[in-house]
Amino acid sequence: MVYRSKLHHLSLNLCVRQLCRFPKLVNHLEYKICVLGELSVGKTTAIRYFVRNAKYSHVHEIEIQSDVYHKRVDVETPKKMMADLHIWDYAGSEMTMPSNLWMKFLHEVSGVIIMFSCNDRSSFDDVPVLFRILGTALDYQPPMILVANKMDLSNEVPKEEVLDFAEKYDIPCFFTNALTGENIEDVFVAISSECHRDSPFRSMIPDRW
Ligand SMILES: Nc1nc2c(ncn2[C@@H]2O[C@H](COP(=O)(O)OP(=O)(O)OP(=O)(O)O)[C@@H](O)[C@H]2O)c(=O)[nH]1
Ligand SMILES: [Mg+2]
After folding, report:
1. What is the CA radius of gyration of the chain?
2. Given 33, 58, 79, 113, which residue has the most CB atoms within 10 angstroms?
3. DSSP for 140-206?
4. Which CATH class is domain 27-197?
5. N- to C-terminal Cα distance for the chain?
6. Cα separation of 99 and 118, whole Å?
7. Does the beta carbon of 187 sit less than 6 angstroms from any atom of ligand 1?
8. Are 111 and 145 in contact (CB under 8 A)?
9. In the 8-state DSSP scheme, what is residue 45?
């Protein structure tokens, strides 16, 4: 009996894997998105603006205190598709996280949003540090979006410098105000589309399973 149910589970898994090779057969996607950045750059404000009243859960069973927010979005592709985003917001300072925890936090991440604050030079200077951490923790490069938040505040980081940086690293960039929500929606739509195009970790589940 146990053997039979294991067999059933195995064949179900195989079936899902086969379907994943043919995205046109499915119309429901799931992506794990991690939002990274220095302290107080506005990560939680941005996520909460985006998800509004959507449900979220607190994850701590993998030694990492994180809030995970869930939101379903439409992904822009020729065919209309839905994606469930699971947005991970680390509760603490990423910059001091030990490397073994980084690997757990980023496990099978589909896409990464890196945020800094326009009025905090050091948060911008730390972006390459985050790139290096990602490079060490992962053996693939997930799609990334750079977010220059608090664009309403004093410009410690000139816009031209941000644009040059984004061009140098070939990473899409958005200027946002998480308090008013300006451009926040666009950030999450963009990372969803990037995940759909590029991420090796896109789990695809047929809608009516
Ligand atoms: N003026 C302005 N303030 C912002 C903006 N985004 C966030 N804030 C404020 O910045 C402060 C920090 O925002 P959080 O969302 O808590 O930042 P965080 O990155 O989640 O911080 P940690 O989780 O502590 O790393 C709060 O007081 C927010 O109201 C913005 O775009 N403009
Ligand atoms: Mg926060």
Report:
1. 18
2. 33
3. S---EEEEEE-TTS--SS-HHHHHHHHHHHT--EEE-BTTTTBTHHHHHHHHHHHHHHH-S--EE--
4. alpha beta
5. 23
6. 27
7. no
8. yes
9. H
Domain chopping of the chain, boundaries: 27-197
CA–CA separation, 143 vs 10, rounded Å?
30
Q: Is 44 in the pocket of ligand 1 (CB under 6 A)?
A: yes
φ, ψ for residue 193, nearest 5 deg: -65, -40
Structure tokens at 200: 């090796």
105 alpha carbon to ligand 2 midpoint, in Å?
15
Q: Widest CA span of the chain, in angstroms?
A: 67
pLDDT in tens, the chain (209 residues): 444 444 444 444 444 444 444 444 456 789 999 999 999 999 999 999 999 866 555 555 556 678 888 898 888 666 777 889 999 998 767 777 777 788 888 989 999 999 999 999 999 999 999 999 999 889 999 999 999 999 999 789 999 999 999 999 999 999 999 999 999 999 999 999 888 876 665 554 433 32
Listed residue (205, 183, 207, 202) closest to 192, CA to CA: 202
Helix (H, G, I), strand (E, B) or coil at 68: strand
- Ligand 1 atom nearest to CA at 149: 31
**pTM for this predicted structure:** 0.83
Give dist(CA 111, CA 144) in Å, integer: 6
Quickly tell me which residue has 């073994």 as its tokens: 100
